[in-house]
Specification:
This protein has 13 helices and six strands. With 296 residues, it is of the alpha/beta class. The protein has two domains: 201 residues, Rossmann fold (3-Layer(aba) Sandwich), CATH 3.40.50; 82 residues, 5' to 3' exonuclease, C-terminal subdomain (DNA polymerase, domain 1). It has a six-stranded mixed beta sheet with strand order 3-2-1-4-5-6. Strand 5 and strand 6 form a beta hairpin. Helix 1 packs across helix 2, helix 4 runs antiparallel to helix 12 and helix 7 crosses helix 11. The longest helix has 17 residues.
Length: 296
Amino acid sequence: MTTRIHLVDASLYVFRAWHSMPDEFNDHQGHPVNAVHGFARFVLDLLERQRPRHLALAFDQALESSFRNDLYPAYKANREPAPESLKRQFGYCMELCRALGLPVLVDDRYEADDLIGSALEQARGHGLCGLLISADKDLSQLLAAGDEQWDYARNQRWDRDGVPARLGVRADQVADFLGLAGDSIDNIPGVPGVGAKTAAALLAHFNSLDELLERLPEVPFLRLRGAARSAERIASHRDQALLCRRLATIVRDAPLPAQFGTGERGATDDHHLTDLLDRLRFGPLTRRRIANLPPP
């Protein structure tokens, strides 16, 4: 039986909870904690359903201080900064995970995707495969034999072989694809005028961005609509395509906590947890679920 490490794109589920939960939940000081309550429900559901022995929850703290902002200052500049009330809730979510004995990954220079990629790389060295819990298409580039990605909200799961049907390219081509087509969500421009269909068709023929650039004079002769114009655009934006690929490439050697190992679940810190649940004003149902959680 395959042993998997469950790697959670935690920030995604904090944001989902913030948007979906009513703002009627407040902590002991009157600050809103609706996202914390919704995120707690997600975490408890995951622990009850999956009973993972190896787990890590990766949070984004590098949205404005990522190394990618040094490479390209406009990276994710299209996103509004999180309000202070939400930042406080992120802190509560991390505190809750730690009190439950769940490994938390967060860094000022590396994003959650990078921490997930690095944790997966380390776990593979110990013979584990990964279950990536996120709907983020970027993470599909990490999938190798034995790994799966799980869009938890839609309950859709796919492995490496399922990536082409979803994105039009292989898992190992995702970063090249985004280098050409760009990614409006992260404000990665790609090559102007080269859309997703063209990028996928070019990678199907040339296999990689590097090979495409080496054989660029062949592009005008392809049976591809607008092939000559695409060749001109790529030639004039060669450096931009390479930069965009680097922005889209998930780091696999980001620093992890010294004690991380393979993300083994730890014991619940009962004293800390009781104090935290009081501050968050959690009700008896959630407290009962926590008390009855399956052991690590």
